Every structure is written in C-alpha cells, then in structure tokens.
Amino acid sequence: MSDPHKNSVAQLEAVAKLLVEQYSDKKRFMQVIEKLKVPDRVIEGELVVVMDNGQTRKFQAFRSQHNNARGPYKGGIRFHANVSKSEVMALSTWMTWKCAVTGIPYGGSKGGIVVDPRELSQTELERLSRAYAQLLADHIGPWTDIPAPDVNTTGQIMAWMVDEWEKVRRERDGQIHEDPLATFTGKPLGLGGSQGRDEATGLGGAFILEKLTQALGQKPREIKVAVQGFGNVGSWFAIHAHRSGYKIVAISDSKGGIYIESGLDPKEALTVKQNGGKLEDLLKGKAAARLTNEQLLELDVDVLVPSALENVITDQNAGQIKAKAIIEMANGPITPEADLILDKKGILVIPDVLANAGGVTVSYFEWVQNLQGYYWSHEEVLAKLKPLMDAAFDQMWQMKQKTHQSGRVSVYLTAVKRVVDTIMLRGRV
C-alpha cells in the first residue's frame, strides 16, 4: 500500500526543485520546504465510548494541523476503517495547497477516527462524535482550526460536535467570546450551515470541467465522462456535468459500476440509490454493461473522474488508462509513480487541490456568514463560487503554458510559492 504522507512529501520535493531558482536565499527557501514536509502538530488519542450494550469500546482518533501561516487550519473529519496517521498528515498537507490555490485565508488540517460507522447505532455515533470534539476542544476554534465533514461524516455529526465543543468550553471558561457556530462548517442549515454546501465540491469540479473543455476548444456534447465513486462528490459532479450537456457514460459505487454507451442520467441513478436500489437497476432494457471499479478506470473516455478514495491509480494500472484527461475529485487518487506514467502518455491531470476545492471554498463562505451573522441565498453562494474556481483554473493553465509542466506541478508551483512567501514574510524561518 502506497504511503499517503510520503506521496505528499514527494510531490512537495518535486515542486521545490523547480521553485528554488526563484529565491536568492536558497538555504532559507529549503528550510521552509523542510518545515512544510511535516505538520505543525498531530493530535492523537484513544476515544472510549460506551456502547448500547453497556460495554466500552476504544477508537483511535487523529487530527493533523499542517500549516497556519495563511490563516486558521481548515479541513474535514472522516470516519473510516482505513484512517491512519499517515493519511491525515497527507490530507492536511494537500488542504494547505488547496486553500492557497483558491486564495482563501486558511491553512490545512484533517482529522479522522478509525471506525466503520455502519457498525454503530445512531446513539453510539453521537457518543463517538462528542468524544472526538472533547479530544479536540483545546485545539480547534473559529480562529484556530475549523473542521468540516469528510468521508462518512455529515451535517448532523458536525451539529453534535459544535454542541459538545461549546459545552466543554463553557464549563471550563465560563463564557465564550467567539461564535461556536464558526468552529465547524458543513453544518445543517438550521444550525448556521450555508446554502449550496452539499453540492459545492461536485459543482466546483463541474466548473473546472467546463473551463477545461473551453481551454481545449471542445464542446460539452463531444465529451464522454466516467465517474468512479457515486457518493456526495461524484454524484453532484455528474449531475451538474450532465445538466451542462456532457455525456456521462459510466458511474460506480463501492459495489461496482455500470457503462451505458448512449449516456445515463445521474439524477435518475441517485434516485434509484436513495430508494434502496442498485446502479445495475438502470441497465434494464438498455445496451449497457456491468463494470468493476477497476474496469471503469480503464474505459476509453475523454474525461475520467476518480471521486472515491486515494491511491486508485498506481504504477500497476496507470499504463492501461485510456482517458485523455483526469479530474481528481477524490483526494490523492493518483500515486506519484502513476503521475509520471500518465504524464509520459500525454494524459492531462487536473489535481485534487484544484478540482475539489469547491467544498473548502463554500466552507469558507459558511465561516464568513457565521462570523457576520448574515446569510446568503443559494444563488449568491454559487455565484461567488464560480469566479474563484475559474480564476484558480486560469492560473493553473497559464502556468502550464508558461512552464510546460504537468497540471499538478503547475498548480503546486502557485500554491507552494504562496505558502512559502507567507512563512518568509512572517519570519517563521
């Protein structure tokens, strides 16, 4: 299994070799790079939770805070059996670049609990969520670190954590001088959440798809798209891309996928899943086929969109990828070794730190609304998201044209330089 944090460091080192020539004080530049290879802090703990049967169970929990030179730490919380210290360290690093790419004033963080939430009852899930908020109580806050939902976490889980964080801080300090609601984003609308947050990551990716199509001089109806991972991000990406005229020919979830040459309606697929059905139910009466997730990755399509978990494209299968472009909607779906193979094949990769930055951007909007106590309409939120995503793509594309580097390196050159310059301005190195 590829080590996620080692992958993130390898990416940083590759970019540093290209950036170093821009700095007169090369020794100081490399000191900053060394600093950025490891998070500022990793919080670890064992959560002891009383289960419904009265017995206690222990869960390993993490929170990695990578760098806060550009603003408070920001990043999601995931509940998954494969959560590890290396994973949250890598994800927090990528979050730092993601925030820098879009220009929002945050640094990166990420957290998680080693758990399969499907094994827990609703009351056990609440106790686990509150225990995690207690663990982090002294390390998060509106101007310190602002968590959000990620894999297998929801607005309801954020609501429990907001309540627990406020309770702990009030009991300890007597009063709170900050708005507790601004400590977490991705909350339900009834508790200070933002319009458009659920669809923000997928929609942001669809905006990037539109920009890519324009840059290549093509039209949506000419583009065949395959989406691996039909959770929140993948489904919203597919729905918005389909609305814009793109042909979605394949989708998949954890149980496998389907391919329909003539194209499918992602909204219909989502409705089937929400009603307890399976994606293969859409195959009835159509010229179509079942696929494994591995087969979907190797389809002959124009755009491949990995939207599930990290490390799905490796040096083992990169040679079989036939897509002309890849938009990374998952975090870290391509290993550094695979990146090199794809680049040699001429496959354009739009990296995760750009492609899926719509989520953290609307999380930023939610934080701003909480701090102001003033809330925007759905239309206002989406109208504010599009120009930020468009500008981030344009910066990447201009850098790519100028340097002839890959899409990932072109994005990283901008993002890493912004963070390095801020650390130097602060005199932290």
Strand and helix map with partners:
Blueprint: H1 4-19, H2 26-36, E1 41-50, E2 56-67, E3 73-80, H3 85-102, E4 107-114, H4 122-136, E5 145-149, H5 155-173, H6 197-215, E6 224-228, H7 232-243, E7 247-253, E8 256-260, H8 266-274, E9 288-291, H9 293-297, E10 303-306, E11 325-327, H10 336-344, E12 348-350, H11 352-355, H12 358-372, H13 378-403, H14 407-426
Parallel strand pairs: 3-4, 3-5, 6-7, 6-10, 10-11, 11-12
Antiparallel strand pairs: 1-2, 2-4, 7-8, 8-9
Helix pairs in contact: 1-3, 1-14, 3-14, 4-5, 6-7, 6-12, 6-13, 12-13, 13-14
Q: Which regions are unreliable across 5 or more consecutive residues at pLDDT < 50?
A: none
Question: Termini separation (Å)?
Answer: 34 Å
- Integer average pLDDT: 94
Question: What's the main sheet like?
Answer: 7 strands, mixed
Summarize the structure in short.
By secondary structure, this protein is an alpha/beta fold.
Q: How does this model look, in words?
A:
It contains 14 helices and 12 strands. With about 425 residues, the protein is α/β, with parallel strands linked by helices. Among the domains are: about 40-180, Rossmann fold (3-Layer(aba) Sandwich); about 200-350, Rossmann fold. It has a 7-stranded mixed beta sheet, sandwiched between helices. It has a 5-stranded mixed beta sheet with strand order 1-2-4-3-5. Strand 7 (about 245-255) and strand 8 (about 255-260) form a beta hairpin. Helix 1 (about 5-20) packs across helix 14 and helix 13 (about 380-405) crosses helix 14.
